[in-house]
């Protein structure tokens, strides 16, 4: 297996535990800010690579969170394999800002523009009356059924109480 492009931070092999056919996955990982600074990479220059059996392919990778001492990334992959978290020089080159000459902002007079209000939206969507009636009917049927079953059960358990004047 050839080395991953760029400067690899870590190699990871992910294999499915139970399922054999996985069509896609989201992989979340974190890298210490100290490593990024030491290597001279910006968070946008980190890419997750997947080894497809013949070559390394770059996966869509984006920054999820930059908090404290770590930067969290997420990448989408078509499946599991050997992965490499790697820094590339594409967006990660450290540049020192050049001295910029500042000029005072020009003062401008505010202009008055007339705007028209947006047209009122269409009618609000109607309440699904048919669905509400169906739910109410179902509740009534269940309540009546429960009452009849309870009444039958009480009569069956206590037949002496429900005799018609023997």
Question: How are strands sequenced across the largest beta sheet?
Answer: 1-7-3-4
From the alpha carbons, calculate the radius of gyration and give it in angstroms.
Answer: 34 Å
CA(first)-CA(last) distance: 95 Å
The sequence of SSEs as H and E is: EEHEEEEEHH
Total domain units: 2
Helix content: 10-25%
* Poorly predicted residue ranges: 92-106
Q: What is the CATH C level class of the largest domain, in words?
A: Mainly Beta
**Overall outline:** elongated
Describe this structure in words.
The structure is a single chain. The chain is α+β, with helices and mostly antiparallel strands. It has two domains: 86 residues, Immunoglobulin-like (Sandwich), CATH 2.60.40; 32 residues. 24% of the residues lie in helices and 27% in strands. The chain is built from three helices and seven strands. The strands form two sheets. The protein has a four-stranded antiparallel beta sheet with strand order 1-7-3-4. The chain has a three-stranded antiparallel beta sheet with strand order 2-6-5. A hairpin with a 4-residue loop joins strand 3 and strand 4. It is elongated. About 9% of the residues have low confidence.
């Amino acid at each position: 297996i050839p080395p991953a492009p760029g400067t690899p931070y870590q190699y990871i092999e992910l294999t499915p535990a139970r399922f054999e056919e996985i069509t896609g996955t989201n992989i979340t990982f974190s890298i210490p800010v100290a490593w990024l600074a030491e290597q001279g990479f910006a968070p946008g220059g980190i890419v997750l690579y997947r080894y497809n059996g013949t070559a390394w392919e770059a996966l869509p990778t984006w920054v999820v969170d930059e908090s404290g001492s770590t930067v969290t990334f997420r990448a989408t992959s078509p499946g599991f394999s050997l992965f490499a978290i790697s820094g590339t020089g594409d967006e990660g080159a450290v540049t020192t800002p050049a001295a910029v000459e500042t000029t005072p902002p020009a003062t401008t007079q505010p202009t008055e523009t007339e705007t028209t209000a947006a047209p009122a939206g269409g009618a609000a969507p109607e309440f699904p009356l048919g669905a509400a009636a169906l739910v109410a009917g179902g509740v009534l049927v269940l309540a009546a059924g429960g009452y009849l079953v309870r009444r039958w059960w009480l009569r069956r358990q206590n037949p002496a109480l429900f005799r018609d004047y023997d």
